[in-house]
Backbone:
């Protein structure tokens, strides 16, 4: 089987290890003998390619890069992305890219950046003097039907361990949250929500080790993409996740220790 991974603006949007998500999808597919092609979706790419990839990955970016991306992501490119996500192409979008999938992002300085309006939410940076939301984050995925599907893959509650670093605060409107925060800031540090979920698109503030630390999300994306492409039930061969599981245990214990000290 073959899988193509479209990577949004790799040179402009890949802060804090976000390329790790691409590598993780690639390796976990290859270990199962699935051929992977990584396709950059950027300024040079023909707009129709935006709508043809099997999985879409978007990383974070600073305010300045986000503005450059949004200047390019217009017209046919925007329509192709819109159609792909609306028809259920799976994707994972981190920090700066979900901000651009919402209605708008107001940066710390300068003009409001109009987004694609795909996710019913807005993001605002409270200003250059505002504290950034930085640190390890733990949240439970609650979005439907995602939470149920992840529990089936993982055999346990879909607890996500991640790392966030953002100045912008996101406020959801009609779109459902990805999950509820257990530790950390999440979307805005106020309402206890983290990320958003739309069709098969996962939007989160959790950066690039996301898929490595939470392999069940990676496998869910691969499964969805193969199912969409081949229109047949997909069962993925189990991989040895003992290192990831050990790392998760250590992190969760560390958070408990901090909480009780
Ligand atoms: N510019 C955005 C913010 O600070 C996104 C940052 C990021 O993607 N890491 O909120």
Residues:
């Amino acid at each position: 089987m073959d899988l193509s991974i479209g990577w949004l603006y790799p040179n402009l949007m890949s802060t804090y290890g976000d390329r790790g998500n691409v590598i993780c999808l690639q390796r976990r597919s290859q270990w199962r003998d699935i051929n992977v092609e990584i396709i950059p979706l950027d300024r040079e790419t023909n707009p129709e390619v935006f709508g043809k990839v099997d999985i879409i990955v978007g990383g974070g970016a600073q305010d300045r890069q986000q503005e450059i991306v949004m200047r390019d992501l217009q017209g046919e490119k925007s329509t192709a992305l819109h159609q792909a996500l609306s028809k259920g192409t799976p994707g994972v979008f981190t920090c700066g890219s979900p901000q651009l999938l919402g209605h708008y992002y107001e940066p710390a300085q300068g003009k409001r950046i109009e987004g694609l309006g795909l996710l019913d939410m807005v993001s605002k940076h409270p200003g250059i003097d505002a504290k950034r939301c930085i640190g390890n984050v733990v949240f439970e995925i609650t979005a439907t039907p995602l939470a149920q599907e992840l529990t089936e893959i993982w055999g346990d509650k879909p607890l996500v361990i991640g790392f966030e670093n953002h100045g912008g605060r996101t406020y959801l409107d009609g779109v459902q949250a990805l999950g509820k925060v257990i530790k950390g800031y999440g979307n805005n540090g106020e309402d206890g929500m983290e990320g958003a979920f739309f069709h098969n698109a996962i939007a989160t503030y959790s950066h690039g080790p996301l898929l490595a630390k939470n392999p069940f999300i990676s496998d869910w994306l691969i499964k969805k993409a193969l199912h969409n492409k081949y229109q047949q039930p997909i069962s993925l061969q189990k991989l040895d996740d003992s290192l990831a599981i050990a790392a998760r245990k250590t992190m969760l214990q560390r958070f408990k220790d901090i909480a009780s000290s």
